[in-house]
Write a structure and sequence with these properties.
The complex is a heterodimer of chains A (195) and B (233). Chain A is mainly α and 195 residues long. In chain A, 62% of the residues lie in helices and 0% in strands. In chain A, helix 7 packs across helix 8. Chain B is α+β, with helices and mostly antiparallel strands and 233 residues long. Among the domains of chain B are: 54 residues, Arc Repressor Mutant, subunit A; 95 residues, Immunoglobulin-like, CATH 2.60.40. Chain B is built from nine helices and eight strands. A four-stranded antiparallel β-sheet of chain B has the order 1-2-3-6. In chain B, strands 5-4-7-8 form a four-stranded antiparallel β-sheet, with no helix packed on it. In chain B, helix 3 packs antiparallel against helix 9 and helix 7 crosses helix 9. The radius of gyration of chain B is 18 Å and the shape is flat. The two termini of chain B are 21 Å apart. Classes of the chains: A mainly alpha (195), B alpha+beta (233). At the A-B interface, helix 2, helix 3, helix 4, helix 5 and helix 6 of A face helix 2, helix 4, helix 5 and helix 8 of B. The complex binds zinc ion. Zinc ion binds next to helix 1 and helix 4 of chain B.
Chain lengths: 195, 233
């Protein structure tokens, strides 16, 4: 994903790869901007999809769907309401979660609990670029209590609903909701996200 | 059903996409009226997105080309562009909102980016929110082999239903899906969509079923093909 955009952009080669500007150009039908957006966030979307849906081929399908959906619906992006990164990653996460729940609804649900010894941190072995930002995210995750971290990772990285998380952790629903909330607050503050 | 106090507690699970579909829909209806939850969600959503960016993985070399090729043959959505008849066209802002409200229709980047429009359309949105928030809301879903779904949420109390079609297989060149409310074997058109769409249906107490057929672009006065989906109301 460190690879520079391959498509020449009319109007200036020095145009900064700001995802919000790219997304607004995508909304106007600029496919070169879609390519640049992919260069910027494609590897992150794929890694996230891979963590959630597990199957590499399925994860690439999800990634393709996400960027095509970004193309289709970029006009809905409103820059005054959060960053384009958030918009795209939210889209990607929602899609991956919907896919994994749909797929798993068709299989024996017991299968999903096989790994219940804990979240698998080694699924994504092929990390290519670790940016400072990514290191910061990991450092912030390390700053959570084990229970907060488990609750958030089971939901966000494994695609479990909070009732499923409660079952997996043998905790009650209120406790799980509280852990998720406290954990997100701590992460938010650690990452310096505007509240 | 989840009480209002409990709904306030769902911001974090919602930001993590950890709600069941119906609860998700109810929480999104709640967000429309709860400024506190919405404000908190902005930060949580950005935080969750950062979690999503914590890893990177090298895609297949041809994935980029596949995406650009598919985009080249995929029409872009213009806000408010529609093939729906006039009365549905008027309702479209609300329908677009409902698409976001319900189950995070694929293609909508979550509630955060839609919220401003929601605010502007607050009044128009009430009917759909009422269906979603109704204590007696019932949901039924039909799935397609490609993962697409048609979902019907019905409230007897509100005498209304919300239909959400999501990521259906393409109906084919020059064709659309048309939604019908069927009462005593008489179908009444509720609007058309290509692969995804959302619509509110009123007066469902007299309806027997919802049906979806494939019709020529622009829709038909009467169904010209067998339904691809029927859902009893
Ligand atoms: Zn609230």
């Amino acid at each position: 994903m460190a690879e520079p955009a391959r498509l020449h952009v009319a109007g200036g080669a020095a145009e900064p790869a700001d995802p919000s500007l790219l997304l607004q150009r995508v909304a106007r039908g600029d496919d070169a901007a879609l390519g640049q957006l992919y260069d910027l966030l494609g590897a992150a979307v794929l890694a996230l999809a891979r963590r959630i849906v597990r199957d590499p081929a399925r994860a690439e399908e999800v990634t393709q769907e996400v960027f095509v959906q970004a193309w289709q619906t970029a006009a809905r992006y409103d820059p005054s309401r959060g960053s384009a990164r958030t918009w795209l990653m939210t889209l990607a996460h929602r899609r991956a979660v919907d896919v994994v729940r749909h797929d798993q609804a068709a299989t024996d649900r017991e299968d999903r609990y096989d790994w219940s010894s804990g979240p698998d941190h080694d699924v994504v072995s092929e990390t290519v670029t670790i940016r400072l930002e990514q290191q910061q995210v990991r450092r912030c995750l390390d700053g959570l209590t084990p229970l907060q971290r488990e609750a958030i990772e089971l939901a966000y990285y494994q695609g479990h609903t909070y009732p499923e998380v409660a079952e997996l952790l043998d905790a009650n629903l209120a406790t799980v909701k509280t852990r998720m909330r406290d954990g997100l607050i701590r992460l938010r503050d650690c990452m310096g996200v505007e509240a | 059903m989840t009480g209002t106090n409990e709904l306030h507690d769902l911001v974090a699970p919602y930001a993590l996409d950890a709600l069941e579909p119906l609860e998700r829909a109810r929480f999104e209806a709640h967000l429309d009226t709860c400024e506190a939850c919405f404000e908190e969600l902005i930060g949580f959503a950005a935080t969750a997105a950062r979690l999503g960016e914590a890893h990177a993985e090298t895609p297949s070399t041809d994935l980029r080309d596949r995406i650009l090729a598919q985009a080249a043959s995929t029409p872009q959505e213009r806000v408010l562009r529609t093939t729906m008849p006039p009365r549905w066209r008027r309702a479209l802002p609300r329908l677009a909102v409902a698409a976001a409200l319900l189950l995070g229709v694929a293609g909508v980047g979550g509630y955060v980016v839609e919220h401003q429009r929601v605010s502007e359309e607050r009044d128009q949105n009430v009917a759909i929110s009422r269906v979603l928030g109704a204590a007696d809301a019932e949901t039924s879903t039909k799935s397609f082999s490609n993962g697409g779904t048609v979902r019907l949420l019905t409230s007897r109390e509100q005498d209304a239903a919300v239909v959400v079609a999501r990521s259906l297989p393409s109906p084919g060149e020059g064709k659309v899906y048309q939604v019908w409310m069927v009462s005593k074997d008489v179908p009444t058109s509720q609007g058309t969509f290509t692969t995804s769409g959302t619509m509110l249906m009123k007066g469902v107490s007299s309806a027997d079923a919802l049906a979806v057929t494939v019709e020529p672009d622009g829709g038909s006065e009467h169904p010209t093909s067998d339904p691809v989906v029927t859902i009893p109301v």
